[in-house]
Amino acid sequence: MLVDTHCHLHFSEKDPQGQPQLGYDDVAGVLERAHEQGVETIINVGVTPDDSRAAIRLAANPDYAVTKTGVRLYASAGLHPHEAYMGDQAVDLIHDMADDVIAIGECGLDYFKNKSPRDQQEHVLRAQIEIALQHNLPLIFHVRDAWDDFIRILTDYPKVRGVVHSFTGHVAQVDALLKYSDQLYFGLNGIMTFTRDDNQLAAAKHIPSERLLLETDAPFLSPVPNRGKRNEPSGVVHVANFLAELRGQSVSNLADVTTGNARHLFGIE
After folding, report:
1. Chain centroid to CA 76
2. Cys-Cys link to 233, which of 4, 115, 159, 220 (CB 3.0-4.6 A)?
């Protein structure tokens, strides 16, 4: 059994202006295909207040209940660093949803695109960490080109637990986070199947099994052999197969361990 710990099934195929984009209008079919590949659980991750509400509605939709689809849906609520400019009012809305989700995030720091000022990104990240601590929830972190500041911030919150989603750091970042806490996990996805960065692959091998999670980030980051197509949670099986070979593990062992890790971190059935 597999868990997709990070995807966005609640993304529509059309943006608010009605323009086509990556997304889903066929959730039932997506869930059926996921179930066929052994996916038992999917976490839909929010990136803005409105988006987080959509993730919560999807998880609560009786049409997609586990008894009908074979797949259990959960939701998180968060404010992505790209949207940090939305400020405290948006963070307050995330706080209002904390009782309806199993995690806070996607939140973090992104210095690659800098769509929000860096000081605002840090402010919003700290605010969401406080929400998670107040409600005893794990966090889903997004970190890109901002490792030094991210680790500096984490040192102020020794009780934080969560996952660094779409991890593409190197061994040095793995070791720094392992040293920081035994409650931080690393989410790996389709990037590993097509990266040309040997340092990223070395890091993927270096992560202890008990700290590893699988994800897709669907509809983005389709793994080999599905490059160029819309990603789905069923694609997590390709991530599992690739990582098992890379790490010298059996697929069944990798699936068992990562599923156990997801259940432990997120408190899911």
Report:
1. 9
2. 4
Give me the domain span that covers residue 128: 2-266
Q: With the CA atoms of 59, 187, 134 and 98 taken in that order, what torsion angle do they form, in degrees rounded to the nearest 10?
A: -20
The domain that contains 222 carries what CATH number? Answer: 3.20.20.140
Please, which residues bridge with residue 184 across strands?
A: 162
pLDDT digits (tens, 9 = 90+) for 219-268: 999 999 999 999 999 999 999 999 999 999 999 999 999 999 999 999 99
Total number of domains constituting the chain = 1
